[in-house]
Amino acid sequence: MILIYVLLAGSGLWAFGEIVMLSSGQAAAWAGWMATIGLYVAGAGMFALKDLPAMAKPGRVGIALSAFGAFSFATVYTIILTAGVLGAMADGTIAHAQMVYTPFYLLALAFAASGLVSLGLHFRALGDRAGLAGATLLAILSLGRLILADVAAYHEAVSILVAAYFFWLGIRLLRQRAR
Q: Does the record carry Transmembrane helix as a key word (predicted)?
């Protein structure tokens, strides 16, 4: 039960940090750290999803890959926030796309998108259209980061949607437990 609350807290903190960055039009260090901590916490909480109904292999794979994606993106954020990348991006020395096309970012994206695809396969097998539609749409939007690599607002908006999706899955787990 505690993992559900960890998922909810992490997803909420992650989304809030991204919302602050999106609404301010820039990556603020404190909001970046908020999103980073939220990603680490949400990644740990994603293991609560093992309690979703009829959890089978695709779902378990999706949980692991999604958690790895969250941890990997949190590590990318940590590098950006501590290695001077944020300042270089602010003064235009480094473009957003240069950060997106780094091997570690691409690995994080691969984990995150494949985790969503695997969760979508789990929900498809159950006939859960909402879970399937959310996972599928978010996987496609996540891959869109490669095309819109220099549009920071797009990346933040997709992150908000992914965080909201995992928050929603956490709420579903709480409702399931309440029955």
A: yes
CB contact at 8 A, 74 and 40: yes
Q: How many other CB atoms sit within 10 Å of the CB of residue 80?
A: 21
Domain hosting 151: range is 2-178
Look up the pTM and report it.
Answer: 0.94
Specify the number of domains making up the chain.
Answer: 1
pLDDT at 4: 93
Q: In three state form, how does the secondary structure of the chain look?
A: CHHHHHHHHHHHHHHHHHHHHHHHCCCCHHHHHHHHHHHHHHHHHHHHHHHCCCCCHHHHHHHHHHHHHHHHHHHHHHHHHHCCHHHHHHCCCCCHHHHHCCHHHHHHHHHHHHHHHHHHHHHHHHCCHHHHHHHHHHHHHHHCCCCCCCCHHHHHHHHHHHHHHHHHHHHHHHHHHHC
Residue 41 backbone dihedrals phi, psi, to 5 degrees: -70, -45
